[in-house]
Amino acid sequence: MTYSLNSRCSIYASRFAALQQNVMLQYVSFFLATITTVLVLFWPPVAINTQGQVDHGTFTLVMLANSAAFIHGIGFKPHTLLWRCLFTPFFAWPPLIWFLLGLA
Question: Does the N terminus or the C terminus of the chain have fewer Cβ atoms within 10 A?
Fold first, then answer.
């Protein structure tokens, strides 16, 4: 039995949409984004590296991931496929966890 590429994409898209609407994943996204925001606002030295400077590339990536986690965490669903794919935990969680573990 062969499936067309279009039907395979629609199957994966429906699974992806169901996974993205999982409430527990939204809670985790909101929690990670809140913790990162509180750390950066109330303890700014967390963003400084060992040389005493801010690595702007890494910090920009962390802040973009933080924004994506907040967007996913509050349950906003963008209409455009590109934004729906970018505002997922798959792209937001790795930089945030990396930052919170102190590896940044």
Answer: N
